[in-house]
Amino acid sequence: MPAPNDEKPEEPGSGKDRRDFLKGAAAAAALGVGGVAAGGLLGGQQAQAFPQQTGLPPIGAEIPCSCLAINTPLQIRTSLVSVDFRGGIKVRVDVNPDDPVNSVRLRVVGHRVSAELPGGAGMDQGGGTITIEQNDIDVDAKSLLKLTQRFPPRYEQIMVLSFTMTIDQPEGLLRRAGIQSRKAYEPLVLTTKDPAMLVGKLTQFPPRGDLYQLQNPVDLVLPDDPDTTIATIQKFPVKVGGL
């Protein structure tokens, strides 16, 4: 018989074994969870399958933005006027197959801005309005949003725009520019000879009143006479903000 003070050996399945087992299980579980998390953060297949994790907007999203271009110089033959354009643009986010991880394509689904021409009593420009509107459906989306830096995030947005410019009540302005209108108040309709390219450097998207700059002057021509430049937008300093 064992002495009264002798310790009784631990039987299998006793408290000590259970404590050891639970400690080991907890450590294994913690290691397993950490391993899964680290795998996800280090770019596993599941993480790479979702481009929005890079800070880019989700594919299919439609994003409307306001546009404000103050003191935009517009040259119509020999006449130079400065006007303020107000309006908006809406884009739809598409996959960019050339670089699906760091960029998306932006399809223009709505673009319209307008400005009042200087005019009034005693002025030979005659007033009127200028409206810039998207030419047609943006079938071949060339506009891009690129992530240029991840931390902190920085973007470059390149907007490639073809549009129609309509000048209503242009008689005074055209007379000053040496152009004879066929009718007294017939609108003058022009179209871009080559697409305009606007570039913005952003720290967030959608933008928040960020300034976009025109990369090259935009010539506007008559639709039936593409070789004769009627007007030129020399600069288009437009502030764009998400709605």
UniProtKB/TrEMBL annotation:
<dbReference type="InterPro" id="IPR006311">
    <property type="entry name" value="TAT_signal"/>
</dbReference>
<protein>
    <submittedName>
        <fullName>Twin-arginine translocation signal domain-containing protein</fullName>
    </submittedName>
</protein>
<keyword id="KW-1133">Transmembrane helix</keyword>
<dbReference type="InterPro" id="IPR019546">
    <property type="entry name" value="TAT_signal_bac_arc"/>
</dbReference>
<keyword id="KW-0812">Transmembrane</keyword>
<feature type="region of interest" description="Disordered">
    <location>
        <begin position="1"/>
        <end position="20"/>
    </location>
</feature>
<keyword id="KW-0472">Membrane</keyword>
<feature type="transmembrane region" description="Helical">
    <location>
        <begin position="21"/>
        <end position="42"/>
    </location>
</feature>
